[in-house]
Amino acid sequence: MRTIVLMISVLAILLIIIGACSKNKEEKRPTKTKNDKILIVEYGDFKCPYCKKVEDKVMPTIKEDYIDTNKVEYEFINAGFLAKDSIVGSRAGNAVQKIAPKAYLTFQHHIFTQQQDEDKKWLTETFLDKEIDKLDIPAQQKAKIKKEYKTKDSDSWKKAEQQKKLTKENHIKSVPTVFINGKKVEDPYTVKGWKKHL
Questions:
Q1: Which of 62, 79, 85, 169 lies deepest, with the highest CB count within 10 Å?
Q2: Residue 43 pLDDT greater than 60, yes or no
């Protein structure tokens, strides 16, 4: 009888350990950053009109209350899948992020503010260069950003492809899709929907 009880106990412990390990394998997104800040990940596309709603209605509050106060780390993953010029916008955004990271959110905001019809090709180099010129950064940085996003196989090009691939691998079917602490925001169009996880 003791042998049976012992075997059942050992089996129960093994099942608990296996269950814990399998749960760890299912977790695809980190709940926090390396420095233990809350991590906000937004999948979007500069041409997406619904992403513009998030930028207009939610981001000003999130930026002021959480990003500017250094309480969270925010990452915009540009899905770049709505049109061919989406990927050009993604490259430009990545170049700004790389060379002048403090100016990135301003750049993102300006792009969304001037968003045009998603069926129209408007994320052109001419348009993007004008937006880069508006940034409050040194002329040398502006020139570097322009060169970076136009250069094939640059870090910005590679990152744009990685972001597109990541969107597909994580089965993101539509944008905007927002995760906070690894949890999906069910209503990304309201501040309340975001704050539920902050």
A1: 79
A2: yes
